[in-house]
Specification:
It is built from six helices and 22 strands. By secondary structure, it is mainly beta. The chain folds into two domains: 172 residues, Alpha-Beta Complex (Sulfite Oxidase, Chain A, domain 2); 100 residues, Immunoglobulin-like (Sandwich). Strands 4-3-12-7-8 form a five-stranded mixed sheet. Strands 5, 6, 9, 10 and 11 form a five-stranded antiparallel sheet that branches. β7 and β8 form a beta hairpin. The longest helix is centred in the middle third of the chain and has 8 residues. The radius of gyration is 20 Å and the shape is globular. The two termini are 28 Å apart. The protein binds ligand MTE and molybdenum atom. Its cofactor is Mo-molybdopterin. InterPro entries: Ig_E-set, MoCF_OxRdtse_dimer, Mopterin_OxRdtase_euk, OxRdtase_Mopterin-bd_dom, OxRdtase_Mopterin-bd_sf. This is Sulfite oxidase.
Length: 341
């Protein structure tokens, strides 16, 4: 076993902090990913915390500050389960690095994505208990792990606008696939923001703060953004994208995912560089916040390059070329998926 009870075949990019993508076999094995194959993205060292002294603080622009133990969370609010896909904004970065190098960033292939059944309470219910004041427009999350790649080095944090925080799908989760969260995935409690880039799903969350402005944390204010106008904009919902997981014996198998609950309408695969396409058979998603698996009958002789592309339910297609999507930190590459056999 690799560190953190992960499968031996995890694609480990960094040992410390531990950054590893899910092997294609783990992603293909089921529409819900086993915890031992679930990708890991860590900006700092996994914190050690005794659940005994752990408390979640809810403060800022609220009528009533809260200090909640795990038992208080479990016992005081309705329990909720959501099957949600997490995808790192850096998933498929390798395709952008092939266009032009991106020094200092992890060369993620298409395995910085996984799906779990998360159990916890709705963030909306906790915010309701605290009573959000009128001036609050963002909900910020703070964790104790210190990110060395932040400038300056600082604990990890993020925020989401109040509308997303109050939506029923955003969880404060203590379990993953029916078992307590393992340390590397955020024990004892993490935020799960379905449909949005993984960076907003803060692990080891200790503080939830209602604010007038977005979090000033490096990972909200500086990283995980795309150039926009003369400034930049935060990455939020995941754009429709897909991956090819395996191909052989005349069949290709993969995943497709469109964030923000949009769902995938169609997937096509080409074995001739995009001249002709075969429509893939799409599995039903395990829920509105999850990816879908697909399979297509296509020639799979050695040397063939397979290309796959998806449309979301708004009719938005994936762009063809990574070159048009290149950005300095290498986020959000949703160009057509390619696999050379
Ligand atoms: N939360 C904390 N506290 N520290 C982190 O480094 N990484 C974020 C997010 N939450 C991170 C975090 C990023 S960039 C992603 S993609 C997801 O966690 C990855 O979640 P996972 O490791 O459980 O797959
Ligand atoms: Mo990420």
């Amino acid at each position: 076993m690799k560190p953190w009870d992960k499968r031996d075949d995890m694609v480990v990019h960094e040992g410390e902090p531990f950054n590893a993508e899910a092997p294609a076999a783990a992603l293909a094995a089921g529409v819900v990913t086993e915890v031992d194959g679930f990708y890991c993205r860590n900006h700092g060292t996994v914190p050690e915390e005794g659940p005994e002294e752990w408390r979640l603080v809810v403060d800022g622009l609220v009528r009533q500050e809260l200090r909640l133990s795990l038992d208080a969370l479990r016992g005081g609010f309705a329990r909720c389960e959501v099957v949600a896909t997490l995808q790192c904004a850096g998933n498929h970065r390798a395709g952008l690095m092939d266009v032009r190098d991106i020094p200092g960033e992890i060369r993620w292939g298409s395995g910085a994505i996984s799906t779990a059944r998360w159990t916890g309470v709705r963030l909306a219910d906790v915010l309701e208990r605290a009573g959000i004041e009128d001036g609050a427009a963002h909900i910020a999350f703070e964790a104790p792990d210190v990110a060395k790649d932040a400038l300056p080095p600082q604990p990890y944090g993020a925020s989401v606008p109040v509308a997303k925080a109050r939506s029923g799908e955003v969880l404060l989760a203590w379990a993953m696939n029916g078992r307590p969260l393992p340390p590397v995935h955020g024990a004892p409690l993490r935020v799960v923001v379905p449909g949005w880039i993984g960076a907003r799903s803060v692990k080891w969350v200790r503080r939830v703060t209602a604010r007038a402005e977005p979090s000033t944390n490096y990972f909200q204010a500086t990283a995980y953004r795309l150039p926009s106008g003369s400034g930049s904009m935060p990455l939020e919902a995941v754009a429709v994208n897909c991956g090819i997981l395996r191909a052989g014996r005349g069949e290709a198998v993969g995943y497709a995912y469109a964030g923000d609950g949009r769902g995938v309408a169609r997937v096509e695969v080409s074995a001739d560089g995009g001249h002709t396409w075969t429509r893939a058979e799409l599995d039903a998603p395990p829920g509105p916040w999850a990816w879908q698996h697909w399979r297509a009958a296509v020639p799979t002789t050695a040397g063939t390059e397979l290309v796959a592309r998806a449309w979301d339910c708004d009719g938005t297609p994936q762009p063809q070329c990574a070159a048009a999507l290149w950005n300095p930190k290498g986020y959000a590459n949703n160009a057509w998926a390619r696999m050379r056999l």
